[in-house]
Structure formats: structure tokens, C-alpha cells
Amino acid sequence: MHGTIHVARALLGKILLHGSASGIIVETEAYTGPGDDASHSARGVTPRTRVIFGPPGHAYVYLIYGMYQCLNIVAEPDGVPGGVLIRAIQPLTGIEQMQSRRRAARRVEDLANGPGKLTQAFGITMQHNGADVTRGTLTVHPPKNETQLDIAVSPRIGITKAADLPLRFFLRGNPFVSRG
DNA sequence: CAATAGATCATCT
DNA sequence: GATGATCTATTGC
Q: In chain A, what are the domains?
């Protein structure tokens, strides 16, 4: 709950890497489980939500609207639910491959500026559900030079329950943040 | 630019 | 059988 918010902020500025594709995480949302009605884990363990209740640092990937996948990072200790949705990424490398996976994107800014777009650009699928993001083919790691970040906060996007909680975090002014 | 319709299926009730 | 942590294309000012 509290730790998930910390992780959501800490993930900003980190690098997501999958094959030749890499980029800076510029937008996240915290989903804190009990008490957060928008969170998938709010109503307990199901076959789908079991990875959110598992150890931190693992990927929770799910299908939304029958055609897009969303990537979360599990954020709480084993047994405690909580996850961080990765909402937007600033592409760094593998941009040509991202463009071939996302023919609809006309600008580089549109390659990964949304939760469904970035999984498509990076080739992330439900096969990655449960994957350890500290080792393996899909990883998150610190940038080479850590700098001060200007982090802005807002309500989360696209939800109907608990829609007023300020649990969305993004890099202020960054052009790769989603439009909502 | 803003609003909206339609696509499409795993998951849960 | 209903419901989405979405995106794109298209329409209308």
C-alpha cells in the first residue's frame, strides 16, 4: 500500500529493457490492493491475481479489452498485494523495431505513450506474466547517471472506481507521457 | 481540436 | 453473461 506508492515513484527514470528495445519509464500508477477498489487484487486472490500476491520485482501482465496487454511490477513483499502499472516509456534504443511493431504510430512520441502501446512496442505479452524482472529477458535497471527528477502527481486514468486517488506519477513536462 | 464507436476475449459472477 | 488499469479511426465543430 504505502510501499507500492514508493515503488511507483522509484520506477520513474528507470530503464526497461527487452531485447533491443529499451527506454526510460516516464509514467506510472500505483494499485495498492485492499482499500483500492480499482486494483485487481482488491477482492482477493484469484488465478489471475496470484502473481500480485507473490514476491516483488516480478511482472504482472494482463489482457485488457480483449486486445491490449498491460505491464505491472509487483511492489509488496510476498503475501501482500500491490503493483505498479507502467503507463508510458521514452524510447531509447530499438526504435526501428518498435516502429515495425506499431505501424499506427506516426511520431516517436506515440510509440510507447500508453500502457497498451508500450507493451506492443516492446513485444511484451502475457507470456511474461510472473517473470522476474531483476534477471531474465525482461528487466528493469537504474539509468547510467541518476539525476534529479521533477515528479508530478495526478489521479489515475481510465478507471471508474477510486478514480479520485492521487496515485499517478509522471515526469513533469516529459513529451512521452500519455495524454490520458 | 473534441467526441465517440467499435474492436475483441480472459476473467470473474 | 457482463466487464474492463485501451487504442484507433472516424466523424463533426
A: 3-138+157-171 (3.10.300.10)
